[in-house]
């Protein structure tokens, strides 16, 4: 008997992820422009950097990333467990509930309703809604696993399960707050305690939303696009337990040289350094899976997106432990180097992975086996790749320069360089950052056009002339 999988809600999540990705990253380009041309604030309290920046980060994390993770997880859990979703109505409740969260964020953040906590800016009524929707999502996901008709739980579902459980736990703990009015609250924590809990959340929002969830997605789709099994299934399981075991302890490397106790800072340093091993082991596993089909890798630009994503993953998981080392932290922390690191991971690892999944998965969800134009995928790859390199390298240079200038002192103890001197040094790199961001977003527009034309084709249609020519080349 054929299993009636629920793909409709998956389609909605995927399309919504594309839309939020374009919106959030366009806002990011506007913010990059404002840093170089302050007049782009338009002298408006609603359009200035401080109001738009949390809209950008929340749009990327909760709009772009969470939608693609919810969509792919609900697809993969059905296919690998060989059962339909636990409850179809619940899946739609999760979808529309999550979009309500995002709409409320779009309204409240520009109006200035914010807790001011990194990646946790949304106020308490929205936090409660997030917690409720997230628990329902967990019930839907784990309920489907409980119904499975196979004994084995595929490794992708382990990563998705970890991301669901850990995010629920740390989000609720970090957002415990006392309401003052309907749109204002204060955290129950204060001082160093507040910083510790906040970066337990902040670092692991990256570690489990932007890392574990994306890894789970890739462990399913990289073998699919490669037409090869995972290079080492055992290594993928070691990768899982390594991340789960060490990542949650690493957040205090954000608090080096602070009033947080030294032993806690050192714990974050040690755990960050240990994370090199499972992270690079997982990167090696995915790279080898792709390399197991070298003939296809030579011409398939979707595989190139995945390959680049893994390279950026290895780079980002090198930069994080590097920042945890005290001598480097002293130079780079609180500079634009951090922004370069975050975006080499967010655009390079998460962005390139998501783009590869969009290209491979969305046409197949609608019954198409080929894209309208492989040539546009090639153009997109180079727009995205060059954009990330310009963006990240510019901010690495700006950050190291800022750190060096801020540490220089005269013999009498006064600072050698003023804050304005450091900003003047950074100015051309802010322009480069803007150019890199524009290049990346232009690539997204090419992708959306290509996917639109793909889905508009009749299902039985032969590939377009351009597609045939692309394959011939």
Structure at a glance:
The chain contains 16 helices and 2 strands. By secondary structure, the protein is an all-alpha fold. One of its GO terms (molecular function) is metal ion binding.
CATH architecture of the largest domain: Up-down Bundle
Distance between the termini: 43 Å
CATH topology of the largest domain: Cytochrome C Oxidase, Chain A
* Largest sheet properties: 2 strands, antiparallel
- Strand content is under 5%
Number of strands: 2
What is the domain tally?
2
Q: In the CATH hierarchy, what is the superfamily of the largest domain?
A: Cytochrome c oxidase-like, subunit I domain
How would you describe this structure to a colleague?
With 473 residues, the protein is mainly α. It folds into 2 domains: 188 residues, Cytochrome C Oxidase, Chain A, CATH 1.20.210; 212 residues, Cytochrome C Oxidase, Chain A. Helix content is 74%, strand content 2%. A two-stranded antiparallel sheet has the order 1-2. The longest helix has 38 residues. It is globular. The two termini are 43 Å apart.
